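Protocol step 4 of 6: structure prediction from sequence.
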Amino acid sequence: MSDGESTLADQQGKFTQVVKDGDKVPDVEWIPGRILLSDKRLVLASNQGKRTIPLSKISTIKTRDDASQPFANVSSYLSLQVGNDVTLVAPNDHEEFEHELYSAVLDGEVVITKHPAVKGGVIQDTEWQKGRMAVDEDQIGLALADGKFVEVEVDDVGDLSRNRGEVLDKERLFIEVEHTVGNTAVETHISGKQRKVNILAGLLGSNQAQDPENVELSDREQEVLMALYSGVSPFQIPQFVGMDVETVEQIYDQLIEQGILEVERERREVELKARGRHVAGEAMGRE
């Protein structure tokens, strides 16, 4: 490492290049070696030589951590795009390295934020404002110009989409991030440098909820779900939807089994999980 360069991670692992100059690499094999990360570059060293990737050249980072869909028998790895090249990196401690990599690229970045852009399914009259991003373990923080501090937990992101539109008098890319503040579903919109926005989308979308099209709900289940999504207290749901308490409790149990609700404390306070908010948002959009 050069003077003024800080080492952030130094691990053993595997890596391989799967796309070179826009073309898929045939007969891909994992190469064992050393994976060294600094605040300026990523170094992949093996018996075959050394490759250096400047962090400033990385355009996207995608996380793969699914044992049911391994690549060449490796289920946890990071996909890094640099120009027309794509490299896969699988450090031995995937979670620690992933956090250090995202922090190195995104921590301290100036962003433009609209929060909340949507609250309880209702579009808000909120202005774009600048802020600064902090990357912590399993969440990001946004310190906004008006003094607010917004936290977005990665596991709490229910839906994430990219869009383009006018942001501070200029057309820019921005991401729409659905999450919760307290018990209320909100959307926070985040813009900035396109490369950094794409990398942030990779971080926040790494645990994105399952496709809501695969979820089948009864009319009563959908009514309860949408009431919760709109911010109605779980204890007020029976009166709000006109059902008796026992029926609502049974619906809660069914939605918990589907991974849409989770129990906050017995008996009986529940809150929407990321998947539940995703399903509710899709349902409201169809009305």
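Step 5 (inspection) to follow. The two ends are 57 Å apart (CA to CA).
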